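<backbone_tokenisation>
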Amino acid sequence: MLNDGGAIVVIIGAPGSGKTKVGKRLAKILDVPLIDTDKVVVASHGPIPELFTEFGEEYFREREREAVANALLEPAVVTLGGGAVLDLNTRADLASHRVVQLTMSKTAARLRIAGTKRPLAKNADEWAKLVEARQPIYDELSLLTIDTSLKPMEKVAREIADWLGTQQQ
């Protein structure tokens, strides 16, 4: 059963799939706040690549978990970093939320992640390995999956808004 409080919808998926861009558009359509958990971590603890370099992935994941747990309590569109779903507590929390997965092709990833500072997906091959490992988790958690490879982000946001309209209980 989906909860009646907290996040309106949670957007998960591969790094670079458009979670933040779609989340911003969706929050505007729904006239609610957007909580991007990566941005929450950065605001409180500094840039993610620096956290990985200085303190390691485990430290970052602990900060990320705190941000996700707090965000899920708010009536907002919540976007999670690509690896946030690795945390078992986060996965348990997401079971009571409407979760949308954004995907994209390796070709789209090549274009979108070029020149970024993603600590675990520096190129399309690393990205593909990362996504392959996480895909079963994304699939298990999501109620709706949308491929963003060739769709404008505004259209994706509208699809999610329409879907949410059909999910009202």
Q: What stands out?
A: The radius of gyration is 15 Å. The chain has eight helices and five strands. Helices lie at 19-30, 37-45, 48-55, 57-71, 88-94, 106-113, 124-141, 153-166.
